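Continued from yesterday's entry.
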Amino acid sequence: MTDWIEVAKLEDIPRQGARVARTAVGDIALFRTLDDQVFALRDQCPHKGGPLSQGIVSGHKVACPLHDWKIALDTGIAQAPDEGCAARYPVRLENGVVRLSLSPDEGCPNG
């Protein structure tokens, strides 16, 4: 069974922006897209560990602020030709409240 924790209100995360949730499993970046979808990734680029929460959100990708790697928000996978993956965490939006599971989704080889 997955335990969900309340981490923010949707309005606390700017559109095309991010906020950091400090959790027992480390920092998790919460991203909000223009269409109000929320995604959660470990706040570390798979390349050099840059803070993804400080990157620029465009569409459903975030660009790492260190070396401009593009990471897909829905999968955590780096856009080719770059290779790597940032662990992805399940998110629920309930009545304007963002809830997060601290169990990363499967499928990220280095999650």
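--- second protein ---
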Amino acid sequence: MTPVEYYHVVFTLPAAISAIAYYNKAVIYGLLFDIAAETLRTIAADSKHLGAQIGATLVLHTWGSALTHHPHVHGIVPGGGLSPDRSRWLACKPGFFLPVRVLSRLFRRRFLEELEATCRRGQLRFFGQYAELNDFTAFTQWLAPMRACEWVVYAKRPFARPKAVLAYLSRYTHRVAISNQRLVALDERGVTFRWKDYRVNGRTRNKTMTLEADEFVRRFLLHVLPGGFHRIRHYGLLANPSRRENLAKIRELLGVVPALIETNADVKATAAVPSTFVCRHCGSPMIIIDILQRSRPIRAPPVERAYA
């Protein structure tokens, strides 16, 4: 983490696209990630706004408070970036990152362009009431109203401090759909849980909802991701291949010395010896914490011996 402001930006898909996303999770969730990141980086690179290379961590949520299917990504973005020549840190205005209306317009245009191209390549599938969209002409006609409706992109207040970012990530990145604290009862009526209603005169109302057990399970299973799909992704300056180098450059420009804490002599000794094993995914050295000895195989169950 670096000692700068961190901003919280949310990109949401319209209800109609959320409906077809359920049948095309990997494709549409992937587009949601990539187009949201592209939008942030494009607007931030524009000299009319920030004129800098930025980084972002995006976290996918697919649920609303009532467990409905509501795909959106939360973006956690440092409040600034590197100048194009990487010689300066360009900070955004205090309390303001990027204009959300500009973000919304570009996000809508780019997402629809890529969604249409994806359908043209035959990478989308439609069933039930949406089966007719398998015809590309029908799909483009269905898509047309999406170009005129508002797409919800909004920025929350910046995090109070870098530690608050870590607190947010620890609470929300590995929770799926509902936490235990929201569960109220399980009885003959079904499952009762707390939820927030955002539609009452623009205010948030805390309510309780009871669903039959099978409906509760159905809603929960809406949010199971495709196998191997990553719900947290890093882009730009925070992308995995170059993150270490970029963070070192940013700290240098900000005059920040990273705190290196050695917990014991073993850690120091390990750091001094070149690693024998390297992670094939990220290239980082792997540390041996234990060696499991191979046990002798059991070739057959023991046989009882009869004694005279």
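Helices lie at 15-21, 25-45, 100-120, 136-143, 162-172, 213-221, 243-254, 265-272. Residues 178-221 form one domain. Will compare against the first tomorrow.
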